[in-house]
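Below is how a single chain appears once it has passed through the pipeline. First comes the sequence as given, then the structure the pipeline wrote out for it. We keep one example in the README because the format questions we get most often are answered faster by looking than by reading.
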Amino acid sequence: MSHDCSIKLLASDARLVEIQKLMTGGFDASDIDYLVLNFTPQDLRREIMNAQIQIAVCRAFGEDEGERYWLEFERAARSALETRVWLESSSKPKTYPGQRLDPQAIKDRADIVSLIERYTRLRRSGRNFLGCCPCHDDRHPSFTVYPEQQSWHCFGCGQGGDVIAFIMLVEHLDFKGALIFLEKQHYGTG
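Resulting structure:
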């Protein structure tokens, strides 16, 4: 059996074989993007470990070209892992230990009319606002916003509630997620 550090033979994952065929000239940003988009952090950690093993094998058999390739691949995989971890951590709203979100304070700060206008067009009708419901296929205005009560109701689908219930529905969030979403909207961090 030959101990050749061939790029095609040393892949630990079938998906990696294809990318390795394309990357014989070195790694660039598009290769790292490919790794970020197609590999989970666990996959990337496994590939980093695989690269370290291949580096040791190539060193043992004096194959400098194979060692250079695996060193470059390890750096690219580490960069992709850092990017992937950063993307996953930044996409999730975070609260710090001890930080409490006060639902009533968040509701008091939120202007329900301007918030709902981001999702559907509203027109004034007396003291209230009417529009098409953003939650279902609505051809006629059946969605009413009551600014004095800071609430809304859709007579078409029967949904209704306060600003938190609206965000939970249209953004597909749980209660805590909706609070964090509204808090970010108020402070402009989202």
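The chain has a mean pLDDT of 79.

See the next section for the split statistics.
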